[in-house]
Amino acid sequence: YHSKFFGQDIFNLTKHQQRAFISTYQGLGYIKDSSLVIQSPLKQIKQYKPDFATGQATLMPLNNDLKKQAMAYYQCAFYMLSKGLYKR
Questions:
Q1: Order of strands, edge to edge, in the sheet holding 56-60?
Q2: Domain-by-domain residue ranges, the chain?
Q3: Domain spanning 10-82 has what CATH number?
Q4: How would you classify the pairing of strands 28-32 and 56-60?
Q5: Fewer C-beta within 10 Å: the chain N or C terminus?
Q6: 19 strand-pairing partners
Q7: Full-model pTM
Q8: Is residue 16 within 8 Å of residue 8, measured between CB atoms?
């Protein structure tokens, strides 16, 4: 599966490969291992456990490794876009 995007072939994922990126005009979200990390303006980072059946989310203690992973994906995407590397 070759793509310039950060996604993966959803039909051939193992449980540990599953992730999703979501965003709004103010928040950047990263879902992995049933956790949602949201990065907001003013360096606010929070982690939730979403319930996709009800649409509710419970605030959780921030997992530092998951936080770093979320930040790294968005920093890498920004770097690639700003340097014109995303077009390749």
A1: 19-23, 28-32, 35-40, 44-51, 56-60
A2: 10-82
A3: 3.30.1120.80
A4: unpaired
A5: C
A6: 32
A7: 0.78
A8: no
